[in-house]
Design brief:
The structure holds three protein chains of three kinds.
Chain A: E1 12-21, E2 24-30, H1 34-40, E3 47-48, E4 55-56, E5 69-72, E6 75-79, E7 89-92, H2 119-122, H3 131-141, E8 158-169, H4 173-183, E9 189-192, H5 213-226, E10 231-234, E11 237-239, E12 247-252, E13 255-266, E14 270-272, E15 285-287, H6 288-298, E16 305-310, H7 314-324, E17 328-334, H8 343-354, E18 359-361, E19 363-371, E20 374-382, E21 395-400, E22 403-407, E23 410-412, H9 415-419, E24 423-427, E25 432-436, E26 442-444, E27 451-452, E28 458-459, E29 476-478, E30 483-484, H10 485-493, H11 499-506, H12 519-530, H13 534-537, E31 549-550, H14 551-555, H15 568-573, E32 577-581, E33 584-589, H16 597-610, E34 612-616, E35 621-626, H17 630-637, E36 650-656, E37 662-672, E38 675-680, H18 685-699, E39 704-707, E40 712-718, H19 722-727, E41 744-749, E42 752-759, E43 766-772, H20 776-787, E44 792-794, H21 797-806, H22 822-825, H23 841-847, E45 854-861, E46 875-878, E47 881-892, E48 897-905, E49 913-918, E50 922-929, E51 968-970, E52 973-977, E53 983-987, H24 991-997, E54 1008-1011, E55 1017-1020, E56 1025-1029, ...
Parallel strand pairs in A: 1-7, 8-9, 8-13, 9-10, 13-26, 15-22, 16-17, 16-22, 17-18, 34-44
Antiparallel strand pairs in A: 1-2, 3-4, 5-6, 5-7, 11-12, 12-13, 14-23, 19-20, 20-21, 24-25, 27-28, 29-30, 32-33, 34-40, 35-38, 35-39, 36-37, 37-38, 40-43, 41-42, 42-43, 45-48, 45-50, 46-47, 46-49, 47-48, 49-50, 51-52, 52-58, 53-56, 53-57, 54-55, 55-56, 58-61, 59-60, 60-61
Helix pairs in contact in A: 4-5, 6-7, 7-8, 10-11, 10-12, 16-21
Chain B: H1 6-10, E1 29-35, H2 39-52, E2 57-60, H3 69-72, E3 76-77, H4 84-98, H5 100-104, E4 115-119, H6 122-137, E5 142-145, H7 147-153, E6 169-173, E7 177-178, H8 181-194, E8 198-200, E9 205-211, E10 214-220, E11 223-232, H9 238-244, E12 252-263, E13 271-274, E14 279-283, E15 288-295, H10 307-320, E16 328-339, E17 346-349, E18 355-359, H11 369-382, H12 395-398, H13 406-409
Parallel strand pairs in B: 1-2, 1-11, 2-8, 4-13, 11-18
Antiparallel strand pairs in B: 3-7, 4-6, 5-6, 9-10, 10-11, 12-15, 12-16, 13-14, 14-15, 17-18
Helix pairs in contact in B: 2-8, 2-11, 4-11
Chain C: E1 3-6, E2 10-13, E3 17-22, H1 34-42, E4 50-57, E5 62-69, E6 75-79
Antiparallel strand pairs in C: 1-2, 3-4, 4-5, 5-6
The chains are: A alpha+beta, B alpha/beta, C mainly beta.
Chain lengths: 1130, 413, 88
């Protein structure tokens, strides 16, 4: 039933909202919660309880109890008392067998006496194995709401970062006061309130007999807040936890704000606690504050005739509210022997007396009585002592009522402070909880401190023992879990004495409201049962989130970084199937229409063997190592020796970790005395690079290490006709003498500056062509065009795997595992013992003294039947014992037999037969053989003696890796892709002085940028590294002929986006975790940080933002920025 | 209605008694002191008493019974490991679990609803096949599954190839299951206590007395005790307690977080694990979805929960089960794990005579509870190292011979 | 989320960093005995208390040291490895 104004401050009576509950059409008002609308529509039953299926209607009306859990539009377990009512909402009740009104599940209540605490531990397991049958039965009755997988709506969710000076949580009296105080100190304050308007309990509680003070205070404070420019207010926003260094998640609608503050004030108040007596869960039994919310905020009259159980003075304000709302107050059961009689409180009480309300003392609730499933009366008894059992009692009268409000006490909202490290103490004398041990910068204000009152805080008015055992039980301590006093007492009797064990054994506090209304009573009952104090007993650990939070809220919009080479589009056009390698997309194979995968792979293999193939190897790691100690660094990091490597030659490089495990490999090419270019595996390079840097921080060798993976697009051109193709595109002399196997040459291919490496990974004459990333697409197209005459065809990772297997080359990670040591690979040729040390050498030496159990060997199966190919990872057996496993295996189209690599017993030898366990135990015989399977004499590396005319090409246009870009992304943000504009990196010991010698304005410390006279921009990233935007004039700087400074190919490794527009800063602030507020991130500031999970360099200069990031991720970055702008409501 | 519950309904007064023995003061001397009253400590005490009649035993804990990682793990049981040593050990453990309720007279709610580990890359498929092959060879039920089979097994799993990392295969482990973690320690403690073992909660070990390389006593916050033998079973504090005895351990201590949703009507039968997405999920018999993942990124002796972990776990689980978008997380917590370099435990003798180690349990300690208790009891009682745990000695690191389970542990729990 | 003060880049969320293990002075790999070498490779102090650790700021690939309390997670101090660490 609805009250007329001024009741119902939150509803707009001129806007009806239509909805349905269990199929019945109902209506409420705009501003209603689902629960308030249901109560206004005289719905008497909202849900069924978890265990006994007892009827429930709601207790707190603050989103703190499981009684209001309903399903709304297929969203299960929604708190009806905090969900705003929406048009056409379909609300259904949960957890009943049959209808809500006639729930067959309630029959379980008849068995309650046979279901003692922890009953499921006590039975259901005899005879052995029977539990699995019972479990099925229990499983059927488990859970509350039902999730319908096919009906889940996808609602966009966002996550945003936000920096503030100070965060105040709770917009009640104390929160507003705290916000004003801090703001008046000149700090920026974010004030967060869970309700739609500020005011907190001032909006529904009563301080004075006339009921005007609270509202007046609220208006005054709200007015001051609104006019204070230092305070920003977020309403309908929930603080769901506190994390280290004041990192606080705030949920507002579908947005999650991750707030970083310098300080936090928590003014979230207290939770009113229910009295514990028989049938205290009946529909119609509610918390006083819940009833006041219903009356004041929603104009809902929750009953006609009320009884109030009073343990504090709030009860009298409540009584006056009820009277004003035309609800008869049949009686106030005053539990206290001597109610406080001072100050404003006594005025409330006097006013209640004046209005003729009967106040009963010397009595306490005995049991609530139901009629047709709803409260109809309260039975009273004479006051008993503080006990957990009641044997004798003096029955007093029974008072009819349809509303029973308890107003007996409060518990501070201790959860978040305790998560922050505070300890909850209980002062028995003052009957009051306090919190101490808060982290720095963390403050409490208001009743969360345990002190009560507006300006003269006093101990909180909680009643010390609002717990009234009944001989027949059903006094619910935890209404989520249907736990009674006796369950807590008996848990202790069973030996579960610690409050944490009480919880685990009885499940108290484990339900949806996480102990918010059971923790206090549980602590008291446990303390009494253990004959100890509440302080010693304590409460169970509070864990985040404060309120149950949809998975989608913390998931937000999900961004998976993706890396693409500049040739990606070409692969797509060719119909490539892609596989994932880390965040890269790599072509696995290029099936033609109608061609199956295996046929495709074999075709690609044969074409490489017969003609020529091309594969995109851009994902291969590339690391630039420069400086006088470059060869020394490699000697220490890799197993081989590199000091003697000739300039213009390359060498296999194998890396171990300090535990002697083989972790990566590649090729080290010597470009100059002091300059090496090292490749690494696709997924390993990140770690290899990082480890190189870490070692060198300790070694302090005179060397620079730079990851240049993205700067180069790489094609391996392989096959007997590879020279014929390449020769047409380059003037580099490809003759054997001029460019031998493992040679490295710098030249041009198709007009593009290129680094050529003669490699043999796939076992054919081949050239790795490394070109600038932004020219990679041209290289691919040029090779394809010229190669057409020679039947060139692209090949993918799958064909490469097979080709290298035929050649007996291992793949780290496939043919090695987390235990593979050097000796097992039989690669002593790759290990130099003639140098002081390398990482892993000492452990390798120790391992060499232990018994060797396995080695990696080649095997063949003399079968051309592809069905006989053993699966990779199948076991090699020695008798019945596992002796190893197959790591690589395939049918070799070249050799027309099955070949593979496997770990085999260390004692085995070439020619031995091994047994591979296939088909669930069947044994396949294979023969061990020498590697390689193919071309053991390396005859395929012979360079054909041909000479052809070079097709002249000029340097083509560079292309950006961002396609379809538009500059204006809307919402006041303009992004310009300047990837094709000039820029470069400058690095080296003398880089700064070199730049100064060119009369440049050099920033004096890292992470600063300086605009040059000609408008270009020089950013300093570290003492010795610079990023120069706007010119490439410094490419190839070698002022004194030494490598003490040099250029880095940043125009190719990094994309360059420029953000401008009125809201560009807001966008960056939202998606970037660092503090980008105008007074924190200034003009000329540089930040190297993460954005959408990838590294970026952010520079602010002259009001615009420059964003440089890995070029192969630039499409991903651009799309992510676009999506974020779209979902932003600036 | 099972007969076991009748007495509770018919009795006039509650027929319960303190299952773990009435609290008493520490004696001056015990034959064996077990530091750590978690699952492992309680199980060891039980087998010492039952199998070897050694009952003059004190089990100490700085907190409450089973309040460490026993209370914090996500109750997953499995034996689909990668090494011969690991499979044999966990298989034996799973066998013990099957009859544990009846043996202990307490329902530990052991259920084998199976476990499915997903592969999203061909490297991962190879790894799963490796595990399947090893498992099958050693008599553990594991098999590879592909598209339709997976879709049938887990009807609501996102199988579409438009996913950023589509599911390529799964390792189905029919033996995988769950048990009520707390009940396991309670059951062991109850039966050990019934045989005379003393459990002393809120009793922290503060020092180990060693004389001529041999342990002689334990100092505690409630007084010093002398003893013949000591077992440390304090996962999460192994290095700290080991230090008291002057023993160095190759352990790094990392928090491992998990979270649980509100209860929903059952939808998901088996346990699903995706090492690629660092997430696993199963639905408890209460209807809650339990979601966990990989360890924290750096060491810490602290059970705080973090927001980034909630974010990544939520995002990962929605990649697999998008329909759980609105399922609500109710609580998030952490345990503290002992990670070893080879992802296998450290069990057996230590450099200190009569001081035994039960440590290095990483994220797999709950699975091992019965077998670790049984083998440690055998070791302590007989001074012979049981074959099952011989590979897991501390000594293996000094011998450079590890038991590498790295391939079978990531986010699988 | 915790923050960490990077000596090169300032205060950042800890997810911008990678933990790089405890800091140890490496023993002489030629001289040290087998046992001590095994401990160097596999064993850390793993103290519950203040430990000196390696951390790397990933966007800038900058390695530095931090003294961190492994019980409270409080970072007491962060500093470059040597006196002139950011030379390059």
């Amino acid at each position: 039933m609805r009250l007329s104004a001024p009741f119902g401050t939150r509803i707009k009576r001129d806007t009806r909202v239509f909805f349905s509950f269990n199929g019945t059409r109902l209506n409420g008002f705009e501003g209603d919660t689902v629960a308030s609308a249901l109560l206004a529509a005289d719905v008497q039953l909202m849900s069924r309880s978890f265990k006994y299926h007892r009827p429930r209607l709601g207790l707190t009306f603050a989103g703190d109890d499981a009684a209001t859990l309903v399903t709304i539009d297929h969203r299960a377990n929604c708190f009806a008392d905090t969900e705003t009512l929406g048009q056409a909402m379909e609300v259904t009740s949960q957890n009943h067998l049959g209808s809500l009104e006639h729930d067959l599940g309630a029959a379980i209540g008849l068995l309650a006496r046979f279901l003692p605490v922890g009953f499921y531990y006590k039975a259901f397991y005899r005879p052995k194995g029977i539990w699995e049958l019972w479990a099925k039965f229990f499983r059927r009755s488990a859970g509350l709401g039902r999730i319908n997988p096919s009906k889940q709506k996808v609602v966009p969710r966002t996550k945003r970062y936000l920096h503030v000076d100070h965060l105040v949580v709770g917009g009640g009296y104390h929160g507003m006061r705290a916000a004003l105080d801090i703001a008046n100190d000149g700090k920026s304050v974010l004030l967060v309130e869970q309700d739609p308007v500020l005011g907190g309990s001032l909006l529904y509680s009563r301080i004075d007999p006339e009921g005007v003070v609270a509202g007046r205070l609220a208006q005054e404070l709200i007015g001051q807040i609104e006019t204070n420019s230092n305070i920003e207010v977020m309403t309908t926003a929930h603080c769901n936890g506190w994390y280290a260094d004041h990192y606080v998640p705030i949920l507002q609608g579908h947005n999650l704000f991750k707030i970083r503050a310098s300080g936090v004030t928590l003014a979230t108040g207290s939770l009113e606690q229910p009295a514990v007596f028989r049938n205290n869960d009946l529909p119609g039994v509610m918390l006083g504050s819940g009833v006041q919310r219903l009356v004041h905020l929603y104009g809902v009259k929750a009953g006609h005739r009320a009884v109030i159980i009073a343990g504090n003075d709030e009860a009298y304000g409540l009584a006056l509210d009820l009277l004003d709302a035309d609800i008869e107050v049949a009686a106030i059961i005053e539990l206290r022997a001597e109610p406080v009689k001072s100050g404003t409180r006594s005025a409330l009480m006097e006013s209640v007396v004046e209005r003729g309300v009967r106040i009963i003392t010397g009595a306490e609730p005995h049991a609530a009585v139901a009629r047709r499933g709803h409260l109809s009366a309260i039975q009273l008894r004479g006051q008993a002592s503080k006990e957990v059992h009641v044997a004798q009692y003096e029955p007093l009268e029974t008072i009819e009522c349809d509303l029973l409000c308890s107003s007996v006490g409060f518990l501070p909202q201790y959860q978040i402070p305790c998560q922050a490290g505070a300890r909850l103490r209980f002062d028995e004398e003052d009957n009051c909880f306090t919190l101490d041990g808060l982290p720095r910068g963390f403050q409490l204000a208001g009743s969360i401190t345990g002190k009560w009152g507006l300006d003269e805080p006093a101990p909180d008015p909680s009643h010390s023992w609002p717990i009234f055992p009944h001989p027949q039980g059903k006094e619910f301590v935890d209404q989520d879990e249907d736990l009674q006093i006796v369950d807590i007492v008996n848990a202790v009797a069973d030996g579960f004495t610690h409050v944490q064990l009480v919880k685990r054994y009885s499940t108290v506090g484990m339900g949806p409201s996480q102990g918010r209304h059971s923790a206090l009573a549980t602590a008291k009952i446990t303390a009494a049962a253990n004959r100890t104090t509440i302080d010693e007993t304590g409460v169970t650990t509070a864990r985040p989130p404060l309120r149950a939070e949809p998975l989608a809220a913390s998931a937000g919009e999900v961004f998976f970084p993706a890396r693409l080479s500049s040739m990606h589009e070409a692969h797509s056009k060719l119909g490539a199937q892609f596989l994932h390698a880390g965040t890269w997309y790599r072509p696995a194979c290029y099936p033609r229409p109608g061609e199956d995968r295996i046929a495709c792979i074999e075709r690609e293999v044969i074409n490489v063997r017969r003609n020529v193939g091309m594969i995109d190897l851009s994902t291969l790691g590339g690391i630039d190592i420069r400086g006088p100690d470059a060869s020394e660094l490699l000697n220490r990091l890799y197993t081989g020796g590199f000091k003697g490597l000739a300039i213009g030659k390359s060498k296999y490089a194998l890396m171990c970790n300090e535990a002697g495990v083989v972790i990566d490999d590649g090729v080290a090419a010597r470009l100059a005395e002091t300059h090496f270019y090292v490749t690494a595996t696709t997924t390993g390079v990140e770690n290899v690079y990082r480890q190189m840097l870490k070692w060198n921080v300790q070694w302090q060798l005179d060397v620079d290490i730079t990851n240049v993976t993205s700067a180069y697009c790489v094609v391996n051109l392989a096959g007997p006709k590879s020279k014929e193709v390449l020769a047409r595109l380059t003037t580099t002399d490809l003759d054997e003498d001029a460019f031998p196997y493992l040679g490295v040459r710098e030249g041009e291919v198709a007009g593009i500056p290129a680094r050529l490496l003669r490699v043999g990974f796939v076992g054919e004459l081949g050239y790795e062509i490394h070109v600038p990333q932004t020219l990679g697409r041209h290289l691919w197209e040029a090779l394809a065009a010229v190669g057409a005459t020679f039947d060139i065809a692209p090949f993918g990772v799958e064909a490469q795997r097979l080709l290298r297997l035929e050649k007996g080359h291992i793949i780290i990670g496939q043919d090695t595992d987390a235990m593979t040591h050097l000796r097992e690979l039989e690669m002593s040729w790759a290990v130099s013992r003639k140098k002081p040390f390398f990482i892993g050498d000492r452990t390798t030496a120790e391992i060499d003294t232990t018994r060797m159990t396995r080695r990696l060997a080649g095997f063949t199966v003399e079968s051309a039947n592809r069905m006989d190919v053993p699966q990779e990872s199948q076991l090699v057996l020695e008798g019945d014992r596992m002796a190893g496993r197959v790591t690589s295996a395939a049918y070799s189209p070249t050799l027309d037999k099955i070949v593979g690599l496997a770990y085999v017993p260390a004692t085995s030898a070439e020619g031995d037969t091994i047994t591979i366990r296939v088909d669930h135990g069947h044994g396949l015989q294979a023969t061990l053989c020498e590697l390689p399977f193919y071309d053991p004499q390396t005859e395929r590396q012979r360079v054909p003696d041909i000479s052809v005319d070079v097709i002249e090409e000029t340097l083509p246009e560079r292309t950006s890796l961002i396609s379809g870009s538009r500059s204006d992304l809307g919402n006041g943000v303009v992004i310009v892709d300047r990837t094709l504009s000039d820029r470069c990196g400058i690095r080296g010991r003398t880089a700064a002085s070199w730049l100064e010698s060119l009369s440049m304005l050099v920033p004096d410390k890292p992470n600063c940028a300086q605009v040059q006279k000609d408008g270009t921009l020089l950013a300093r990233l570290s003492v010795g590294e610079f990023l120069f935007l706007g010119s490439s004039n410094y490419l190839g700087c070698h002022p004194d002929g030494a490598d003490s400074n040099y250029s880095l190919p940043r125009a190719d490794s990094h994309a360059w986006l420029v953000l401008s527009g009125a809201h560009s800063r807001e966008l960056l602030q939202a998606v970037c975790s660092i503090d980008l507020r105008p007074r924190s991130f200034l003009d000329g500031d540089v930040a190297q940080t993460l954005m959408f999970g990838i590294s970026v360099i952010l520079i602010q200069s002259e009001g615009i933002f420059h964003l440089c990031a890995d070029i192969t991720s630039s499409q991903y970055l651009y799309d992510a920025l676009g999506e974020s702008i779209n979902s932003m409501s600036i | 209605m099972p007969f076991g519950l009748l007495k509770y309904g018919l009795a006039r007064t509650y027929p319960g008694k303190n299952l773990f023995g009435e609290s008493r003061s520490l004696k001056q001397s015990y034959d064996v002191v077990i530091i750590g009253a978690g699952g492992h400590g309680a199980a060891c005490a039980y087998y010492l008493a039952k199998e070897y009649g050694i009952t003059n035993v004190a089990v100490l804990d700085k907190g409450y019974l089973g309040g460490g990682n026993t209370a914090r793990n996500t109750a997953v049981l499995r034996s689909n490991y990668l090494t011969e040593e690991g499979v044999a050990f966990y298989k034996a453990s799973l066998e013990l679990y099957k009859s544990l309720s009846n043996e202990l007279g307490l329902n530990i709610m052991f259920e084998q609803r199976g476990q499915l580990t997903l592969a999203h890359s061909d490297a991962a498929v190879r790894n799963l096949r490796w595990r399947a092959e090893v498992n099958q060879h050693l008599g553990v039920r594991s098999e590879l599954m592909f598209n339709d089979e997976i879709a049938q097994m887990v009807p609501h799993l996102r199988m579409d190839t438009a996913a950023r990392y589509p599911i390529l295969a799964g390792l189905w482990h029919a033996d995988g299951g769950t048990a009520r973690h707390d009940a396991v320690v309670w059951g062991y403690a109850k039966e050990a206590a019934a045989r005379g073992v003393e459990f002393h909660q809120l009793t922290e070990a503060t020092g180990i007395d060693i004389d001529h390389g041999k342990v002689t006593g334990v100092r505690t916050t409630r007084g010093d005790i002398s003893c013949g033998k000591v077992i440390q079973a304090v996962a999460g504090s192994s290095s700290v307690v080991g230090n008291m005895a002057g023993i160095k351990l190759p352990i790094h201590t990392f928090p491992l977080q998990a979270m649980v949703t509100q209860p929903y009507k059952p939808l998901l039968e088996p346990h699903i694990s995706s090492p690629h997405h660092h997430v696993y999920i199963h639905q408890t018999s209460r209807g809650e979805f339990v979601i966990g993942g990989g360890s924290d990124p750096y060491p810490l002796y602290n059970t705080r929960a973090t927001l980034p972990m909630r974010e990544t776990l939520s995002a990962a689980v929605l990649e697999l089960f998008p329909f759980l978008r609105e399922a609500r997380v109710m609580r998030q917590w952490a345990g503290i794990t002992d990670m070893t370099p080879d992802y296998s435990p450290i069990m057996g003798e230590s450099p200190v005579q009569n001081y035994y180690l039960d440590a290095g349990w990483g994220t797999w300690g709950f699975k091992a509870t019965p077998i670790s208790g049984m083998t440690m009891a055998e070791l302590v009682a007989t001074d012979r190292v049981p074959e099952l745990i011989a590979p897991f000695s501390l000594d293996r690191f000094y011998r450079f011979e590890q038991v590498n389970e790295a391939g079978a542990t990531a986010a699988s729990h | 989320m915790k923050t960490l003060l990077c000596p090169l880049n300032g205060i950042r969320n800890i997810d911008e960093f990678i933990y790089g293990g405890e800091y140890h002075v490496e023993p002489d790999r030629k001289q040290v005995d087998r046992k001590a070498w095994a401990e160097h490779v596999f064993f850390d102090t793993n103290s519950a208390g203040v430990v000196t650790e390696w951390w790397c700021h990933t966007p800038s690939s900058f390695w530095f040291l931090a003294d961190r309390d492994t019980v409270t997670d409080e970072v007491i101090n962060t500093y470059p490895f040597s006196i002139d660490p950011v030379e390059r």
